[in-house]
Design brief:
With 193 residues, the protein is α/β, with parallel strands linked by helices. Helix content is 31%, strand content 26%. Strand 1 and strand 2 (26-31) form a beta hairpin.
Length: 193
């Protein structure tokens, strides 16, 4: 579900009619007949299309909450603690309460899974922020923007494509969140001192 939401194939989980796991771990998703598929047909997007999402949110979060939430990823990431080979993604509310969490070898899938969990819990993404352990790339920023998450923060660096996508979609992008330090690359007004 998170994958379909973050690609913009569906707007909400209510558009899904049925999910079936088939032999060979193939997931078959049936959408309701009223759903109009986007022109990309669900193929990976790179953000170069003209109709990039624009985030509209009045969310503002204290820097200290962002710092503690990103730091918390290291404590709750059990697969990473055991193996050192997984990424973590978490969705928090403006007070730093954990709403959804996921780990995966791929940072993209970790984000998709956290978005899916948040959607199942009927989370209002415009009132949340996403914390991540991996690099802030253009495609990760686009995933967050597509579901309306206004703030994306990570322990790691932002890439040039991540910064460009954040500016294009009105996403607040925060990298190198370590201790009391962070780099805010776009829309700093959402981070309160």
């Amino acid at each position: 579900m998170g994958y379909l939401l973050s690609l913009g194939v569906i707007k909400s989980i209510e558009e899904i009619q049925k999910i079936a796991i088939r032999k060979g771990n193939i997931c078959h998703v049936s959408l309701k007949p009223t759903v109009n598929l986007p022109t990309s047909g669900g193929k990976q997007r790179n953000g170069t299309q003209e109709a990039c999402p624009k985030i509209v949110s009045k969310l503002a979060v204290k820097a200290e909450i962002i710092q503690k939430s990103v730091e918390n990823l290291n404590r709750i990431a059990e697969i990473f603690i055991k193996t050192g080979g997984a990424h973590a993604a978490a969705i928090y509310n403006h007070e730093g309460a954990l709403l959804a969490f996921s780990e995966d070898v791929s940072r993209h899938y970790a984000v998709d899974k956290a978005i899916g969990e948040g959607a199942l819990k009927k989370t209002d993404f415009s009132e949340c922020f996403l914390a991540l352990s991996g690099r802030l790339t253009g495609d990760i920023a686009l995933k967050a923007a597509t579901v309306g998450i206004p703030i994306l923060a990570s322990l790691a660096a932002a890439t040039t494509s991540g910064i460009a996508m954040a500016k294009k979609t009105r996403l607040t992008l925060v990298g190198f969140v370590r201790g009391k330090n962070m780099n805010i690359y776009s829309f700093p007004e959402r981070i309160l001192s």
